[in-house]
Amino acid sequence: PAPRTVLLTGAAGGLGTLMRELLPAHGYELRLLDVRPIDDAPQAIVADLADRDAVREAVRGVDAIIHLAGISLEAPFEKILGANITGTYNLYEAAREEGVQRVVFASSNHAVGFTPRPPADASPDEGGLIPIDTPRRPDTFYGLSKSFGEDLAQLYWDKHGLESVSVRIGSCFAEPTSVRMLSLWMSPADGARLFHAALTAENVGHTVVYGSSANTRLWWDLGTARALGYEPQDDSEPYAEKLIAEQGELDPENIAHAYLGGHFVSDPPIWPY
Ligand code: NAI
Ligand code: 15L
């Protein structure tokens, strides 16, 4: 049967807030968790992923989990280790113990951030897009934690039969705000469509997908996402003219423009991106 009750971790965050609004229309009953209380959702579970008992209680009885909680940018290694590495382990271990069938893991483009972006004149039809099996090349400790999460998902499938879809999310915000994001943008509505596909496709084992809209300037191959039944409806192109007029075209000589991970590849990462 299709999953109905879904635990959404990181529900107070940017993506969590968007998905709280959009996923119920796809038929889900959401149980919310975050370390921060949520003003407009007093029913949300306030718990740290470090608290194994609380996490186990939170996953009990749900059909599936969308795991968004964690640090979402570069940070000192010790912080990433706690929230993203140990935190994701605690979540998977609780899911295994409670017999939850599937986790949708919010991985990131930064797990493969040091992959050179395709040249502007690359042809998508002639293999010009970054394939899903490109070697992992994290651009930060943050990206490394996402690489760990993907391996953890694979281990829990191979050893315990716990299914996962790892979604290497591009940039999921209301609108793209940079020229790079024209290639990586996932509209919130497409994000909800992709999570829905990841929750409902059959026999996913552990599947890794790129997460974006069907952007004209796409850099990566959406094939494994489409194979789940994902049909993106949006394209960032209407934002292109304004963003390029404001920021200029990407410059391949600029290290912060040369790779998939954008500014995350520089040391230290340059904010804002
Ligand atoms: P965010 O930083 O706005 O939200 C993350 C949430 O996780 C926060 O509400 C925070 O309180 C919670 N959290 C952090 N540590 C926690 C812990 N130890 N226990 C419980 N909750 C904890 O990030 P955003 O943008 O909403 O991203 C959500 C997820 O998607 C993150 O895992 C991020 O790495 C991933 N992602 C997001 C992208 C995007 O474009 N928004 C792109 C790629 C990946
Ligand atoms: C991410 O992984 C971050 O969580 C998000 O805040 C954006 O920076 C996104 O990648 C991006 O690369 O645009």
From TrEMBL:
EC primary class: oxidoreductase
Record-listed E.C. numbers: 1.1.1.203
Report the GO molecular function annotations: uronate dehydrogenase activity
InterPro entries documented for this protein: Epimerase_deHydtase, NAD(P)-bd_dom_sf
The chain positions of domain NAD-dependent epimerase/dehydratase read: 6-175
Give the keywords, sorted.
Answer: NAD, Oxidoreductase
The UniProt similarity line reads: Belongs to the NAD(P)-dependent epimerase/dehydratase family.
**Which protein, by its recorded name, is this?**
Uronate dehydrogenase
